[in-house]
């Protein structure tokens, strides 16, 4: 069976950046499962999964526009330390939830100076080309229940 809309798909992946550094991988873990056509994985990868079959191995290169988005300079800000009430020791790399124009956003602390904290609301992979090495492990029709719930059940999926 080929990957198409409403297929339940499981795949192994290794994601690297432009320098060949591994960012994330399913190696040694269960494959990632998703319902095809539901927007659960980045759009550029979902497009390249279309029509694939079990056992297919391929490389997918995804531009930022079809990955985690372009880097938005306005999401990089400097805020007063007082904005972090109750956090005694703020360190670069810490993540917080903040309120953005479209609702809640996750921000990462990039730098701390005296009474100022520099934050970045971009996804850590925003503006980056994503390089995936993919191996398709399973393709099957999604069940009525999976389609109703919007995700894959069972091994590697969600349990209720």
Description:
This protein has helices at about 45-50, 145-150, and strands spanning about 5-15, 20-25, 30-35, 55-60, 75-80, 95-100, 105-115, 115-120, 130-140. With about 160 residues, it is mainly beta. Strands 1, 2, 3, 4 and 9 form a five-stranded antiparallel beta sheet that branches. Strand 7 and strand 8 form a beta hairpin. It is elongated and about 60 Å long. The two termini are about 30 Å apart. The relative contact order is 0.28.
Q: What's the alpha carbon Rg, rounded to whole Å?
A: 19 Å
The structural class is mainly beta
The geometry reads as: elongated
Tally of alpha and pi helices? 2
Key features?
160 residues, mainly beta, Chitinase A, domain 3, Thrombin, subunit H, 2 domains, 9 strands, 8% helix, elongated
Write the layout of secondary structure elements.
Blueprint: E1 7-16, E2 22-25, E3 32-35, H1 43-49, E4 57-62, E5 76-80, E6 95-100, E7 103-113, E8 116-120, E9 130-141, H2 144-149
Antiparallel strand pairs: 1-2, 1-3, 1-9, 4-9, 5-8, 6-7, 7-8
Sum this structure up briefly:
The protein is mainly beta and 160 residues long. The protein has 2 domains: 7-68 and 126-149, Chitinase A, domain 3, CATH 3.10.50; 73-120, Thrombin, subunit H, CATH 2.40.10.330.
